Amino acid sequence: MKLAANGFGSMTPVSQPPTDAPQLFVVVDTEEEFDWSAPFSREAVGVTAIAEVGRLQAILAPYRITPTYVVDYPIAATDFSARRLSELAKAGDCHIGAHLHPWVNPPHLEALSARTSYACNLGASLEHDKIERLTETIGVGIGVVPRAYKAGRYGFGATTARIVEQLGFDVDLSVNPHMDFSSDGGPTFEAFEPVPFVFGHSRRLLELPCTTGFIGTARRFGRPLHRAASKLETFRGVGVLARSGALNKVMLSPEGNTFTEMRALTETLYRSDGVRTFALTLHSPSLKPGCTEYVRTAADRDAFLATIDRYCEFFCGTLDGVPTTPAGLYDQYVRPRVNQGDPTRTP
Prior knowledge:
Oligomer: single chain
Mean pLDDT: 90
Number of strands: 12
Order of helices and strands: EEHEHHEHEHEEEEHHEHEHEHH
Helix content: 25-40%
Distance between the termini: 27 Å
Shape: globular
CATH architecture: Alpha-Beta Barrel
CATH superfamily: Glycoside hydrolase/deacetylase
Radius of gyration: 19 Å
Largest sheet: 10 strands, mixed
Structural class: alpha/beta
């Protein structure tokens, strides 16, 4: 499924002067624990990893980074996890957003499949009802009206754009540049870059894509070269390109990416492409050993957290970057235009 640009309504790039300092925000996909390789199930709703969020908070606090926990239904509907996040939010130690995993989010009207795990395939009515129920549950359980939305599995489409606008969200975090999820019915974001833009039909919202891009000597040919290499599975073309230093697709996440790769991506986007907003992303179950493929043991967890710490030290120290949040970037880039009388309607 190709995500047509017109699904966003009017799309206006955010102006980011080269004199601006780089800004870092952290987004945690805060969700139930489940086997990512198993079929989708409505019964896998454990949320025990929330007990570990203090470890992440302790890493981020010295850098004055306030993470945004985008929360899905099992997290918001479970007293233990909702109460823990509510405490953090009330103390000003985090922001809360919404994160839709349709297979565990009522109403349960769809058949479970890979295709319906992307909410943009559910039909506008059911997708709307699920996001609305999620938002209401976050309000009741955590006591917050979420301003940011992130589609689970990046399942964002033209219907989603209209729904998040209708339901009052200010920010979307669902676009993952250079990624193609169409092989099992999801959207493709191959044409997107990791830069923010304003969108909407009747009012302005801010899209803050994941920070995913190419590094290496052949990065200017990244999209077609990586696509061609991915078709050479027998010869492991993508791996050959990465090991040779020619081309490597990297996401700014400690899940499956090294500090060296994350630093190289950041420096390349900042110095060569003029990018000034960076999204560091991870999943909450990766904070507990045994819940994801990225963190199997306590030693893995410690290394995982150390990578986050090392990256934040690099960003806020070496790069002279500053912390921000998705809500803060909306207030910086979009709200001034609203207050200046350019409020409700996109051009």
